[in-house]
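Possible regression after last week's pipeline update?

I re-ran a chain I had predicted before the update to compare outputs. Posting the input and the new output here so someone can diff against the archived version. Not blocking, just want to make sure nothing changed silently.
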Amino acid sequence: MSDPLAAVRTQIDRAVETLDIDPTVRDRLHDPDRIVQVTLPLTRDDGTVDHLWGYRVRHDDALGPGKGGLRFHPAVSADECAGLAGWMTLKCALLDLPFGGAKGGVAVDPGDLSVGERERLVRRYTAAVASVVGPDRDVPAPDLGTDAREMAWVADTYGELVGRASPGVVTGKPPALGGVEGRASAPGRSVALVTRAACRSLGRPLTTQTVAVQGYGSVGANAARLLSDWGATVVAVSDAGGAIHDPTGLDTDEIPSYRERPDAVTDCEAAEADEVAHLSNADLLGLDVDVLIPAAVGGVLDSETAEAVRADLLVEGANGPTTPAGDERLRERGLRVVPDVLANAGGVTVSYYEWLQGRNRRAWDRGRVLDRLDADVTEAWESVVETAETYDCSWRTAATGVALRRLAEAHQARGRWP
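New output (post-update):
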């Protein structure tokens, strides 16, 4: 990823200037509230011990407890977590959720961990940050390299440390431990929802649209499959191993997602058809399609790659896939971008429902989760469109502005202590 903290600051600065927002909120949100860095000794299966770095960052808590994922990735750093936590602050405020932004992680390649090593690392990390997380302090969730299994280990470890079951300490847990059905697919669903809404806003029936998805993981695959079900033609998808392209359309159900089988996009039966071309991930970004969904990793659309984009509508499934320079070039070219803080906000929104479920001990069924998610994402989208039209600005600036107004109001109401 490029520099996410610099990207967040740039977005905040532009929104403050464009929407005439109180500049004190800009100064307040340029830096996180707290950065915790811990050393994590990990005993490997062969008895050797590695010492890894772990982080937990809370960006802002004006609206409520910190909320943000726990990622395992070699590139995890304090600065990366700070930037991602800043985006979470904006995302929660935009969706009008009672959370602030947070993020954490461990600098490790999850592919190098056995199941036993992974569990020991999760429990060690939880013990190291237990004093700064909790249902009313900071609530982790799955992210890159982690899923429901890891969240179950976090909840169990934290419960042992505090002496009682505390399901609200994390979200994204298995349903058997208080998780909600639909959490894993929620970010992809919100990407599909805003893609459909954006096409409708532009007067383009979804059934006429061709779509390319970079990153066929839990976000990209779920978005692609929903859009295909709703009538769009998904012509290209990719994972870390490369991309496949069929201008007549791909059967998204026949292509395993990364969760179902890692690196299977170019090595599955659907990829062997005569009409399917094999491309690089960079080539996918430049395909002649109507909608491009970058749902892999951050920083893939810089000033150079943004120049090659031929889609006129981009929907950001990943966190920070567009650098500030790339965003500027896309705006200069007149291309529309639905920002990540709105597009992939389904995850944190459903996490809020799970957090409520854990607090109230009353389960939400899948139908209620999806109905409420669709309504909340649609309401946020409408507020962004209205703001963009009022101030004649991009959807990204409008989304940031909606969030900043709510944060400014919260900070003003709280005052300062001491």
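Follow-up from reviewer: compared with the archived run. DSSP finds 14 helices and twelve strands in the chain. Marking as no regression found.
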